[in-house]
Amino acid sequence: MKKLMSRVLLGVCMLASAACTKIDNYGGPNASFQGRLIDATTHANFETSQNSIQVQLEQISWSATPTPQFIPSKSDGTFEDTKLFKGTYRIIPKGGAFWPVYDSVKMEITQGSSHDFELTPYVVIKNLTHELVGTTLTLKYDIDAPVVAGLPTIIDTQPYVNTTKLVGAGASIRDYSETRAVAINKEFIDLTPGEKSITLTIPNLISGRKFFARVGVRLNDSFKSSNFSEVIEIDVP
Amino acid sequence: MKSIHKIIIAISICVGASITSCQKLNIAPTNIITPDIIFSSEAGVNAYLANIYRALPIEDFKYRPDGGDDININGVNYSHPGFNPGNPWMNFYCSGAVTGEMVGPFGGMDIGGGFGFWPYGSIRDVNYLIEQLPNHKAQLTEARVNALLGEAHFLRAYFYFGLVKRYGGVPIITKVQDPAAPLSELQVHRDKEQATWDFIGAELDLGYQMMPETSIPGKANRYVAAALKSRAMLYAGCIAKYGSVNFVDGEARSAGYVGIGADKANGYFTAAFDAAKLLEGHYSLYNANADKVQNYVDLFLKSGSPENIFIKQYSINSGTAHSWDDTFSPRYMTANALSRSYPTLDLVQRFTTLQITNVDGTPKRFDNLVDLTAGLEPRLLATVYFPGSTLRGLMFDTQRGIYPSFSGTAAAEVAKQPSQRSYIISGDVNTLYQGKRVIGFTGISTSGDELTRTGFYVRKYIDYNKPKSTVDLYKSEQPWIDLRYAEVLLNRAEAAAELGNTGDALTCINQIRSRAGATSVNNATIDVVRNERCMELAFENHYYWDLKRWRIADVVLDNARFKGLMPYYVFNENKYIFLNETETFGRNYNFEKKYYYEPIPGGELGKNPNLYPNNPNY
Known about the structure:
The complex is a heterodimer.
Chain A: H1 2-18, E1 31-39, E2 54-59, E3 69-72, E4 78-84, E5 87-94, E6 105-109, E7 113-114, E8 117-119, E9 124-133, E10 136-144, E11 154-162, E12 182-186, H2 193-196, E13 197-202, E14 210-219, E15 226-228, E16 232-235
Parallel strand pairs in A: 1-7, 1-8
Antiparallel strand pairs in A: 1-4, 2-3, 2-5, 5-6, 9-10, 10-13, 11-12, 11-14, 14-15, 14-16
Chain B: H1 2-20, H2 35-39, H3 42-55, E1 102-103, H4 120-132, H5 137-140, H6 142-167, H7 183-186, H8 193-210, H9 222-242, H10 251-254, H11 265-277, H12 292-299, E2 308-312, H13 324-328, E3 342-343, H14 345-351, H15 378-383, E4 384-385, E5 390-391, E6 394-395, E7 401-403, H16 410-415, E8 432-433, E9 436-437, E10 457-458, E11 480-484, H17 485-498, H18 502-516, H19 526-536, H20 543-549, H21 553-556, E12 563-570, E13 575-582, H22 602-607
Parallel strand pairs in B: 7-12
Antiparallel strand pairs in B: 1-3, 2-11, 4-10, 5-6, 8-9, 12-13
Helix pairs in contact in B: 4-6, 6-8, 6-9, 8-9, 9-11, 9-17, 11-17, 17-18, 17-19
């Protein structure tokens, strides 16, 4: 019995001596980074749909060739990540329908860091009006480009309709959205004034329901990204 | 007396010790096979080569473009191996199933990011072979060593072709690296995309010059090298021509690691054309049977076909047999397992527009399902099983449902919401409507994936002679034809059309069409050549790469949904109708532009920072 006890004690001592020799002294992910994506033409928040713009972060204080991480934009044109490691980052917004930003921002990210990015959209959607006749929604709008030279080809334009106000690419009802797309496939500079005024109709909305709608114009850039209008609310009687 | 005993013992110890001592200790370790043992005999070289052939990135029956999920084979973990060493049975996970040739197992464009293919271990094996062979000319003869070196250059090109079509430029390593060398030597920089393609072209030229004219099936000869060159150079030409119009900008592109200047396109097209022409007179299209349908079916099953240039073989005995027969036909016609990948109407409509509606827009009425196939191109009927066709004595009785009665046009019916349609459908093959089966034993059911969702099943490569009871998993042995003469003709036609030599393109295309039982065409434009390629090479894992190199994948797969051919029985008329409807999975396929190149695998980037910059937008 004594022999057994001493063996057990020996085992416990060995485990104890091997345990807890060092503590992890690297700081936890308690830094945060947030900001706004600003439309350079209106100085309001950029019209995005969820995840259409991503803010790319590279922690250059960790490695010369870090694996990039991305903060997806929220639908209101802001972004936030509260679980980042403290350090120096190279930051650049990517993926949306705006003139590419080539100068990345190098900054120290600690708790509460923020930075706003001013972006020039490829296309702006103006004068959006809507009219509901019975269950058919008609959307009218004009498109314009702040910078025309070098603008990617315009692929198509389409409505996005959803039952929540989180509406946009990947968050819409297909039968009211993708299937109502109108192909354009032209350079902006070749569009006639008539072609820049667009009318979309969406028939057979369900009576008694509330819908949220917006329109988008898709461009043939690297991301095939879309510029969006503001979101409108439609009560179908 | 005692002392004599002692002396005898002492002497015998001395003698014993001296006899057994002083043996040489400097002998080669007997448990390690040295290069001399391997490379000094034909059998040794063959065994060494077999390992390399086995690792070749041939996109065969078993290739899983998403990497697959076979892990832990003989205690070794393979996560995402792609070219599965573990012999997966789910052969329906093929690249045709993300591109609209078929629909089924994948939820969408699930393969764009690749699976981390990085075969530098195998490339090292080839480099070692090239380094060692010249030391063994005495045993193997100089001529044999040269032939083997040619084979090694072909094999090395094959691995690099697998790399460059995925990543663009990769490090070109032609020497056996010493693990003890300084890190700066081991961390090799990426080469430019153009340099990588040029290297492949040069390697295949060496293969062509050094290899003999013939080889046993499954091994390379000089024409195999030429055929692969026609494919590779055609890819390079298209990347130069179309990749300089439709591209994703980024650091890797401006540094030339991805992308080739448009001015190089014609050089590559010429190289592809010349390589394809080398095979003329040495291989020919399979044309053994006057019945065009049966001929086209047999082309993929009969051994010794003059069309086969390079094949990969399988056998039940060695545990390498595949499961194509068992996983592309419904359970109704097999002994086990299930299918999940179904040809689309979009593919079928490449051959012809099916006559399923009358001029007034109402659906045509058919007495039997099989009547629809009357007059269709033999190659089409040999490529997919239509409703009404027969396999192993059983009919594809494919039926989406029953209309008690049907009036109006096809278009109006298809546009209706499902709840407004008056059809009767079922998830269960045993459901009856007034004594008549609602769906067939072969579909179309929307509960479960095991029955067709498009109305069609794959026929290409299906061994119709196998009795039903033997159609099981790991029981199919028909070889995969990796390179066949029809592809070489198509490579040649496409290169010719790109170079403006439409006359030669037309001749090649009409050779293929004549064998297919199709009518001749009068004009071989680039669109005609491409469409011919898509039809002839359907389900052979070409289409995905074709869409990519033509740089149209993001247009063809732009939130795309594909169509099926839905047969219905109209009860009160005792007739069948066919409707063109979205396939019943309702899958959505979207190809992002960044997928034209796969990302360099993360683990490799971690080991070698000189592989940066990664490809654009990763």
